[in-house]
UniProtKB/TrEMBL annotation:
Disordered as annotated region, ranges: 244-268
Biological process per Gene Ontology, one example term: L-tryptophan biosynthetic process
Pathway, per record: Amino-acid biosynthesis; L-tryptophan biosynthesis; L-tryptophan from chorismate: step 4/5
Residues annotated as domain Indole-3-glycerol phosphate synthase: 19-244
Residues spanning the membrane: none
Lineage summary: Archaea, Methanobacteriati, Methanobacteriota, Stenosarchaea group, Halobacteria
InterPro entries named among the record's database cross-references: Aldolase_TIM, Indglycph_syn_Halo_TrpC, Indole-3-glycerol_P_synth, Indole-3-glycerol_P_synth_dom, Indole-3-GlycerolPSynthase_CS, RibuloseP-bd_barrel
Protein name (record): Indole-3-glycerol phosphate synthase
């Protein structure tokens, strides 16, 4: 299952090469994490779709960027009902930083996911977060050790998968948070049927998150109907050019609310 340069899109290969060179933290961290499952349960009780809204200034798969203060964006997402936040810390391709994550986590009271391309244990020590992303395709046989290392530090590891093989590896590693990425990192194609095909194979004990390609409330409902406990949504919330039915455009609070209220209000 180890990744080779032949099976990744060039943009993703560049990201992974940069990740391999990025240093880790100087000291081992110990995190008192905010519970992601509790945050999802709270959202459900409030009648909200559990959404992890992503603070993503830019991306190789989208056009343009946002120059807003990430803390203001994060606060607006929480005001829009986001159950949790995802903050990019990858600097070269996504414009993220560990300092941005520190600032966001200090400003909000919801769980914060560190979204990055981690390939070594010492990279877990770069910054405190509540949840840390581990991409099965990128870490290969090291996945069980990285899951254990993350938990030892207090992190809640979210293991991202795209295939049945990767899902089997995640479950064998003891993952209880699994994200199915609808984007194929080999081709960068997005297909929501990816989640629909894998979801039935995920045990009930696992919290299941649908990632990538969710651009409308109707698609949010589709993922929920397929078994998603929560949704990770980035571009559809961050996109400054996007407009909702009320014409609010780049208002990330309103954009977040479109998805968190998708099941109670329909397409708003």
């Amino acid at each position: 299952m180890n990744t080779t340069s032949d099976d990744l899109a060039p943009a993703v290969r560049s990201i992974l090469d940069a990740a391999a060179e990025r240093p880790g933290g100087d000291e081992r961290v110990s995190v008192d994490a905010r519970s992601l499952s509790d945050a999802f349960a709270d959202a459900e009780r409030d009648g909200r779709v559990p959404v992890i809204a992503e603070v993503k200034p830019t991306s190789p798969t989208t056009d343009g960027s946002r120059d807003d203060d990430p803390v203001e964006l994060a606060e607006a997402m929480v005001a829009g009902g986001a159950a949790a936040l995802s903050v990019l810390t990858e600097p070269e391709h996504f414009g993220g930083s560990v300092e941005t994550l520190r600032r966001v986590r200090a400003a909000v009271d919801v769980p914060v996911l560190r979204k990055d391309f981690l390939v070594r244990e010492d990279q877990l020590d770069a910054v405190e977060a509540d949840v840390v992303l581990l991409i099965a395709r990128f870490v290969g046989d090291d996945l069980p050790d990285l899951v254990a290392a993350a938990r030892d530090r207090g992190f809640q590891p979210l293991v991202e998968v795209h295939s049945r093989e990767e899902l089997a590896a995640a479950l064998a590693a003891g993952a209880d948070l699994v994200g199915v990425n609808n984007r194929d990192l080999g081709k960068l194609d997005v297909d929501l049927a990816t989640f629909e095909s894998l979801a039935p194979e995920v045990p009930d004990r696992v919290t299941l998150i649908a990632e990538s390609g969710i651009s409308t409330p109707a698609e949010a409902r589709r993922m929920r109907a397929a078994g998603a406990d929560a949704l990770l949504i980035g571009s559809a919330i961050m996109d400054a050019e996007g407009t909702d039915a009320a014409g609010t455009g780049g208002d990330v609070s309103a954009n977040t609310r479109r998805f968190t209220s998708a099941e109670s209000e329909g397409d708003v």
